[in-house]
Write a structure and sequence with these properties.
The chain has 176 residues and is mostly helical. It is built from seven helices and no strands.
């Protein structure tokens, strides 16, 4: 390994270890994980070994693995190559039902909104208040006001006008 890059990483790891000691958490575990990594002794089993040390051990070992990646990048070696997924596991149905080509979309609950939100009035507002609010909003979206604007802005104003008119129609229908 080139000394310059590794020295910077070791300095950074030492600073992190001093910080861990200052706050009194898992410094020995952290130091052991970093020592394994810097000595090129880290293996794919290192995370499992750290898990046996408990949550802090796993966290500090993960930090050590990040340090290993930093050392590799500082030395210009790049990340470790990863093995491809065996074909027997790749794109095989799990046997738990039909396989979908697209992930299922879970409907997101929208807050309760309605025509009153579009018009900016209370849900139980009188019809006159709803119509006044709609007229005020429609003046802001009037085609004459947006005639010289860019096409995208004109389309947005037209869409807003349609939304306001739909909300007004719903307000009138609910007032009956």
């Amino acid at each position: 390994m080139a000394g310059g890059g590794r020295g910077r990483v070791i300095g950074a790891v030492a600073a992190l270890a001093r910080l861990a000691m200052a706050i009194g958490i898992g410094c020995l575990v952290f130091s052991a994980a970093v020592a394994l990594v810097l000595a090129d002794r880290a293996t794919p089993a290192t995370p499992e070994l750290a898990a046996g040390l408990g949550l802090l051990g796993a966290l500090w070992t993960s930090a050590g693995l990040v340090a290993e990646g930093l050392v590799r990048l500082a030395d210009g070696r790049g990340p470790k190559p990863t093995a491809p997924v065996p074909p027997s596991w790749h794109n095989q149905p799990s046997g738990r039902g039909p396989r979908h080509s697209r992930p299922r979309r879970v409907p997101v609950r929208q807050p309760q909104t309605g025509w009153w939100t579009v018009l900016g009035v209370a849900a139980d507002a009188p019809r006159a208040t709803c119509e006044s609010a709609a007229r005020s909003l429609l003046r802001q979206c009037h085609p004459d006001r947006w005639a010289t604007a860019e096409p995208v802005l004109r389309q947005q104003a037209e869409g807003r006008t349609r939304t306001i008119l739909q909300a007004l129609a719903e307000a009138r229908a609910s007032a009956r």
